[in-house]
Amino acid sequence: MADDPSSKRHAEGAPEQAPDQAIAFTAHDHRQCQARILARAEAHCASGGLRLTPVRRQTLEILLEAHRAMGAYEVLERLADHGFGSQPPVAYRALDFLVEAGCAHRVRRVNGYTACMHPGERHDPVLLICEGCGMVAESPSGGARRAVGQAAVPLEFQLEGVNIEGVGMCPACLADDGEGIGDGKGAPRSKDAGGGR
Questions:
Q1: 3-state secondary structure 65-134
Q2: From the DSSP assignment, how many helices (H) and strands (E) are in the chain?
Q3: Is 45 annotated as a binding residue?
Q4: pLDDT > 90? residue 155
Q5: Are 135 and 67 in contact (CB under 8 A)?
Q6: Binding residue per annotation — 103?
Q7: Cα–Cα distance measured from residue 13 to residue 39, given in angstroms and rounded to the nearest whole number
Q8: Range among 47-56, 133-142, 154-163 with highest mean pLDDT value
Q9: Is position 173 annotated in a ligand binding site?
């Protein structure tokens, strides 16, 4: 699993991680984070009788490389690099499986996917998307899901799920004069790209 260059920059100015905190915007050992989430996902799939095939596992590993959303075609390119073919259904089937299995989330704002930090747990998180660097943090939604559920009752709307997304700037991008440190896709900006560094 590769390191994302923006993760190192984020770790420099980010607050320390607290237990059960959204970790994307905090300093943490990303390799340990990847290994822990992958192990949880494998255990969840095994206990639920779900097949984490090689292509599905590789897709999850790709999503775990960075705390950001990745589009299906970006995932497809990476899968092809690993010998899994280059037809769109390869990526879409694997991503759909991971979302249905509770191992990934769909990030509608950016038409992408991100690895779930709590695989197998029934939850409806708030996905916080940094417009500066493209990082995505998963945080508990607390009462937000309840509020949406209560709003659905008088309309007799049967709620199947809640997808709450917040857009703004992460602590590292705010510390960088509010201009952001990345290109919105998880890669640091160069001086020439207007990043101010």
A1: CCCECECHHHHHHHHHHCCCCCCHHHHHHHHHHHHHCCCEEEEHHHCEEEECCCCCCCCCCEEEEECCCC
A2: 7, 5
A3: no
A4: yes
A5: yes
A6: no
A7: 28
A8: 47-56
A9: yes
Residue listed under structure tokens 């943490």: 28
Tell whether 33 is in a known binding site. Answer: no
Could you tell me if 142 and 90 are in contact, meaning their C-beta atoms sit under 8 angstroms apart?
no
Pairing of strands 112-115, 126-130: unpaired
- Give the three-state DSSP class for 162: coil
Banded model confidence at residue 11, pLDDT cuts 50, 70, 90: very low
Q: Name the domain count of the chain.
A: 1
pLDDT category at 144 given cuts 50, 70, 90 is confident
Listed residue (47, 40, 86, 100) closest to 64, CA to CA: 40
The domain of 113 spans 5-193
Query: 72-81 vs 88-100: helix axis angle to the nearest 10?
Result: 110
Task: Provide the CATH number for the domain around residue 144.
Answer: 1.10.10.10
Contacting residues for 166 by C-beta, under 8 A, at least 6 apart: 126, 127, 128, 129
Cβ proximity of 6 and 181 under 8 Å: yes
Among the ranges given (7-11, 29-33, 86-90, 147-151), the one the predictor scored with the smallest mean pLDDT = 7-11
